[in-house]
Specification:
Elements: H1 3-7, H2 9-16, E1 21-23, E2 31-33, H3 34-56, H4 65-84, H5 93-109, H6 115-124, H7 138-171, H8 181-221, H9 225-264
Antiparallel strand pairs: 1-2
Length: 268
């Protein structure tokens, strides 16, 4: 971490909340958040790799502790999907829910990394800006939510046909009279727009707020002996509480994914 950023509270916070960006082309408006992209891909590979490794070594006899944990995780996710979606959940819905839950959980859990230690380690290799929590980047949560949104439309068209889906857009929920087609379409348009917004902003807001609180507690701990003691106590308490937030937000994101995909197979 650069020295000037450590001198003022605003500099400290702005430094830790700055992304490692890379512009696409000379003078381009578009940029890539390299830290978000790298962390997201890396955690996705780790999550799916660990599950594949455990499942590959699964036995029908007495399970190992790793196998028992994965089986409990699979059973938990499958039970949640079964309560919402009544079709063939094992073809896509349950695996998708499992992937979303584990991936988002790991991305959220990066908030527990000691941010100053990570920053100093990266600064030693020449990386000054790096955010380790992909879900505190709105680009990540919107990308996940939009992926679910496109899947929802795909499954709606697959289940009802293109004509049936368009008919539902203009004829539900108020009826088939041509005079109320605009009202039906406006109602459904608001519903379609609100889903990815609420889906993404809920996760982003909670994780971003958690990251800011950790930074504020870190600043307090740097104010002296009293601040160090108070910051350590409050930081430990917030970390314990944040465990619930990290897991709960992953669970909520997974459940909304299942709900939206299940709704795509239903008619008004």
């Amino acid at each position: 971490m650069a020295t000037e950023h450590a001198l003022t509270p605003s500099g400290y916070i702005s430094h830790h909340l700055s992304f490692n960006t890379q512009a696409i082309g000379e003078g381009s408006f578009w940029t890539i958040h390299v830290d978000t992209l790298v962390m997201s891909v890396l955690l996705g590979v780790i999550a799916m790799g660990l599950i594949w490794w455990v499942v590959r070594g699964a036995t029908a006899g007495v399970p190992t502790k790793r196998q028992a944990f994965i089986e409990l995780l699979f059973g938990f996710v499958d039970d949640q999907v079964k309560n919402i979606y009544h079709g063939n959940r094992h073809s896509f819905i349950a695996p998708a829910a499992m992937t979303v839950f584990v991936w988002v959980l790991l991305m959220n859990a990066m908030d527990f990394l000691p941010i100053d230690v990570v920053a100093k380690g990266l600064a030693a290799v020449g990386i000054e800006k790096w955010r380790s929590v992909p879900t505190s980047d709105i680009n990540t949560t919107f990308a996940l939510a939009l992926t679910v949104w496109f899947l929802m439309i795909f499954f709606a068209i697959k289940a009802k046909g293109l004509g049936g889906w368009i008919h539902e857009l203009f004829c539900s929920p108020f009826g088939t009279n041509p005079l109320i087609w605009p009202a039906n379409f406006l109602f459904n348009l608001i519903e379609y727009v609100s889903k990815p917004l609420s889906h993404s902003l809920r996760l982003f807001g909670n994780m971003y707020a958690g990251e800011v609180i950790f930074l504020l507690l870190g600043l307090w701990a740097a104010t002296g002996v009293t601040g160090t003691i108070a910051g350590a106590i409050l930081g430990a308490g917030w970390s314990i509480f944040h465990i619930l937030i990290v897991a709960l937000q992953a669970f909520i994101f997974m459940m909304l994914t299942v709900v939206y995909l299940a709704m795509a197979h239903e008619s008004h």
